[in-house]
């Protein structure tokens, strides 16, 4: 956890919860002590209302956390337990056994602290990092480590062992790279797959596949022009059908399978097969960590549409036919492309009806199996201590859970005036700030943004009424794009903890009963007066940092990018430590500003009407597929001018509790930042999955609206000098990466 500023501690809330719970227990005791008949006493006892508590579990990089929420989304209590991690060069590994033990510890501790009986928990949801878990046919760990240690069966999300595999895929120039921002990262899966769309234009049919055929510019232009004519004609006449054509020539009842970042496999799977052949032969299931958690809790191997669409090769459109299914066991995974797996040399993963990668796939929040198994529920032997049969919802990736937990946390009075409820959400970007930071935004149309992952989806169906129903990997009915910074909280820890003044400073913070970051914030405030600085941010006028210490995920998409610090001296004092900390916070904020501006420059949200939107998105896709970057850039610019933009930020995660961190972001980006009522938004997002699984709400979006609530709003500084200062530093920030590319080129020439 990061930061010194919070909005009320759990210790302040817990006594009230405990008092109410104890009062209920006293009623039971008095009832049993009266002389009334046993049957009357029993009826009186039964009449005492029992709380309905929702449990969210989040497994991050360094700890497992559990949060308990009431039916209004208020946090009752939470607890965390550390997770062991092994780091050897680019290889970063964990143990699923250790992770589950940490989950059980945190759940039981949270229940104890909040005075919640396990029987009061009515729904459970899991969220976790995008780490890869390997287990054998009886669920035992299978090592993924060079060491051969069987405990180490989890490849952590930030592992960079697969850099060569990523470079190989990027060199292929596959058109599906469009769905992950133009290139893949070692932290994600390589987008590969097949595309077969028929484009009908004045020049005839043009078949598009993964093997691109030559196409002339005038053919593309004529195709686009015909589609614009079709769309405008429909808009003017309100015709329900368009002679069997939609967008780029789709039949009015045709379902299409589009490429996306998930048209891929785990890069780590390729690495394991090439380097750990014994482990490859032993592994019976390969699972994303969040899917493994729900499997461990329920025994149901159903995978999440969130993980499979965003991180694997799953074609989610097939699930539109299964929206009304009630039993996850009936939701057969019909979106795997067997031919694809065969082509890339991993055909053995489709054996046993895809048993190794998922026989069934369900929407987030879908109830799994028969709920919590007796083995996972029992109070002894280090399990959860909950009621067997408690509903468990299909899981989410942790950043997506954060988005679910906060996306509806903007007050209605602050929503865009005149904007419909389903349009206002498209103006927002969620910052899930932890070890890394994910930047989540949704839109009604699919948008292709270089250097930004997505658009993610679960499917699209076109019917006779010319209506499209789109289900994203995070919020139903929306397309999701995701930017990110691979190291934010981790970078702050690295900068601060590796400074020579840190040990003494940490001891001083502990003696004062505060955090290291809290004490650093106070020191910076005092330095403003000491150094006669016009404002706090100006303390770093001679110190500039490029925060790419673990590569650049977005929007540059350069895993080889390195961190840079300009302005170091021989000063090793605590005050110099404070300046390095502030400059790092600012550098992270400049990175977020770069992502936001980049998304807006590429038309993040377009309000042109559904027909024209679909033409535009297909046109942009066509230009990228046939490698016409200049035309694509022009088209993106036109869309950005015509569309609305992201102008509201919502922050959650550990770093969002740091007041200086959030204020610097607001000042640097120039937008207000909304903080949710509950700090633990990822846990709330996971708990929302449990609420949906328990049938407390009819849909995920309805649960989001009911359980999310706004908190504090942090506004940018109104001082024009602050804006001028950050504009200047942002220019230097952008220049640092350009300089690094130049240096890299010079050295490449020296060492061919």
| CATH domain class of one domain | Mainly Alpha
Write down the CATH topology of one domain. Methane Monooxygenase Hydroxylase, Chain G, domain 1
Radius of gyration: 26 Å
Helices, by number, come to: 24
Query: What portion of residues belong to β-strands?
Result: 15-25%
Total E-strand runs: 25
The residue-averaged pLDDT reads 76
What features would you describe in this structure?
The structure is a single chain. The chain has a domain at 489-593 and 720-750: Methane Monooxygenase Hydroxylase, Chain G, domain 1 (Up-down Bundle). The protein is 39% helix and 16% strand. It has 24 helices and 25 strands. The strands form 7 sheets. Strands 17-20-16-15-23-24-25 form a 7-stranded mixed beta sheet, sandwiched between helices. The chain has a 5-stranded mixed beta sheet with strand order 3-2-1-6-14. Strands 4-5-8-7-11 form a 5-stranded antiparallel beta sheet. Strand 23 (648-652), helix 21 (659-669) and strand 24 form a beta-alpha-beta unit. Helix 1 (10-33) runs antiparallel to helix 2, helix 13 (398-406) packs across helix 22 (681-693) and helix 17 packs across helix 18. The longest helix is centred in the C-terminal third of the chain and has 31 residues, at 720-750.
């Amino acid at each position: 956890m990061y930061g010194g500023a919070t909005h009320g501690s759990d210790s302040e809330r817990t006594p009230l919860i405990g008092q109410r719970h104890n009062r209920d227990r006293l009623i039971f005791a008095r009832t049993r002590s009266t002389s009334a008949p046993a049957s009357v006493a029993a009826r009186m006892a039964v009449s005492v209302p029992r709380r309905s508590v929702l449990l969210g579990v989040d497994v991050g990089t360094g700890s497992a956390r559990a949060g308990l929420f009431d039916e209004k989304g208020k946090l009752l209590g939470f607890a965390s337990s550390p997770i062991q991690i092994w780091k050897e060069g680019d290889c970063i590994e964990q143990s699923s056994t250790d992770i589950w033990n940490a989950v059980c510890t945190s759940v039981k501790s949270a229940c104890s602290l909040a005075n919640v009986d396990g029987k009061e928990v009515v729904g459970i949801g899991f969220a976790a990092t995008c780490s890869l878990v390997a287990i054998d046919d009886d669920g035992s760990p299978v090592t993924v480590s060079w060491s051969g240690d069987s405990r180490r069966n989890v490849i952590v999300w930030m592992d960079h062992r697969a850099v060569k595999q990523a470079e190989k895929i990027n060199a292929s120039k596959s058109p599906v790279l469009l769905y992950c921002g133009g290139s893949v990262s070692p932290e994600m899966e390589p987008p590969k797959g097949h595309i077969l769309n028929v484009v009908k234009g004045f020049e005839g049919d043009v078949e598009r596949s993964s093997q691109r055929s030559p196409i002339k510019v005038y053919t593309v232009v004529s195709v686009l022009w015909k589609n614009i004519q079709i769309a405008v004609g429909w808009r003017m006449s309100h015709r329900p059908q368009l002679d069997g054509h939609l967008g780029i020539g789709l039949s009015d009842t045709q379902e299409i399978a589009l490429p996306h970042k998930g048209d891929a496999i785990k890069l780590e799977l390729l690495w394991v097969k090439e380097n750990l052949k014994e482990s490859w032969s032993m592994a019976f299931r390969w699972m994303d960590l969040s899917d493994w958690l729900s499997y461990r809790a329920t025994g149901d191997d159903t995978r999440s549409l969130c993980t499979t669409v965003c991180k694997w090769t799953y074609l989610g459109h097939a699930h539109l036919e299964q929206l009304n299914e009630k039993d996850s066991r009936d939701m057969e995974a019909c979106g795997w492309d067997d031919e694809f797996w065969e082509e890339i040399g991993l055909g053995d993963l489709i054996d046993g009806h895809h048993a190794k990668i998922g026989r069934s796939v369900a929407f987030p929040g879908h109830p799994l199996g028969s709920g919590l198994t007796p083995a996972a529920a029992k109070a002894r032997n280090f399990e959860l201590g909950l009621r067997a049969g408690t509903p468990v919802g299909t899981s989410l990736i942790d950043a997506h859970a954060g988005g679910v937990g906060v996306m509806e946390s903007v007050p209605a009075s602050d929503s865009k005036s005149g904007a419909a409820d389903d349009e206002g959400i498209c103006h927002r970007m969620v910052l899930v700030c932890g070890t890394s930071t994910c930047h989540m935004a949704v839109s009604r149309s699919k948008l292709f943004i270089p250097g930004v992952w997505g658009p993610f989806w679960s499917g699209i169906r076109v019917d006779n009424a010319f209506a499209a129903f789109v289900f994203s990997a995070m919020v139903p009915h929306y397309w999701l794009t995701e930017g990110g910074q691979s190291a934010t909280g981790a970078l702050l820890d690295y900068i601060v903890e590796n400074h020579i003044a840190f040990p003494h400073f940490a001891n001083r913070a502990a003696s004062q009963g505060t955090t290291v970051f809290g004490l650093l914030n106070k020191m910076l405030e005092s330095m403003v007066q000491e150094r006669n600085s016009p404002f706090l941010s100006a303390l770093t006028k001679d110190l500039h940092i490029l925060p790419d210490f673990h590569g650049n995920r977005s929007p540059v998409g350069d895993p080889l990018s390195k961190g840079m610090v300009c302005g170091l001296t021989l000063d090793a004092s605590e005050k110099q430590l404070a300046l390095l900390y502030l400059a790092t916070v600012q550098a992270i904020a400049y990175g977020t500003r770069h992502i936001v501006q980049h998304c807006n420059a590429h038309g993040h949200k377009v309000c042109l009407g559904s027909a024209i939107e679909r033409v535009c998105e297909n046109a942009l896709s066509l230009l990228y597929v046939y490698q016409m970057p200049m035309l694509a850039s022009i088209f993106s610019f036109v869309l950005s001018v015509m569309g609305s933009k992201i102008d509201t930020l919502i922050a959650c995660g550990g770093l969002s509790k740091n007041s200086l961190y959030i204020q610097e972001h607001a000042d640097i980006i120039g937008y207000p930042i909304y903080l949710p009522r509950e700090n633990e938004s990822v846990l709330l997002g996971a708990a929302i999955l449990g609420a949906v699984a328990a049938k407390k709400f009819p849909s995920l979006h309805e649960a989001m609206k009911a359980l999310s609530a706004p908190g504090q709003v942090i506004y940018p500084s109104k001082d024009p000098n602050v804006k001028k200062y950050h504009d200047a530093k942002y220019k230097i920030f952008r220049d640092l990466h350009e300089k690094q590319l130049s240096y890299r080129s010079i050295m490449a020439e020296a060492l061919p």
